[in-house]
Automatic annotation (TrEMBL):
This is Chalcone isomerase domain-containing protein. Transmembrane segments: none annotated. Keywords: Signal. The keyword Iron-sulfur does not apply. GO terms for molecular function: intramolecular lyase activity. Residues 19-183 form the Chalcone isomerase domain. It comes from Endozoicomonas montiporae. Residues 1-19 form the signal peptide.
Amino acid sequence: MKKLTLLFASLLMSFSLYANEVAGVSIQDQLMIDNKVLNLNGVGVRKMLFMDLYAGSLYTKTKTSDADDIINSKTPVAIQLDIVSSMITSDRMASTVNDGFETATGGNMAPVRERLDQFINVFNEDIVKGDRFIMLVLPGEGLAAYKNGDHLTTIKGDDFSQTLLKIWLGNKPADRSLKRAMLKG
């Protein structure tokens, strides 16, 4: 009986370790940032032509599979992007974020254009495999952007934060399978 219990425990532990590694990136069950503790809601991989680009993790206070609840959350939410491909460059990331905002706003970029330009500066420095970006949504305050643990900027406005979340969680997400994985809550 002891051997069976030991076998079951080791299988369970190896499953837990596997569940926290995506595309070669170790994903934590909790994110502690800016004096906030958030729980992993879900994680997946952004792919392009069968190539892994980044691991995308969604952190929330309470797990949920409702994208609208997350987009309109009154509690902090974070998206973590772990770069796993050298194909991700500063120019490509800036262009992709701009395209994401174009889609998320239905082409009405005027209300967020100036703040988007400020946010895109987060991607000005070289991006290399292993870089980690965190976008922390603080309702009522704005969006705090981090790269490899360094705070880069804060963008004011819940409208901006909600639009950014729609890139991954909106009705026309950048990657539907990544959205499903992030919302597995």
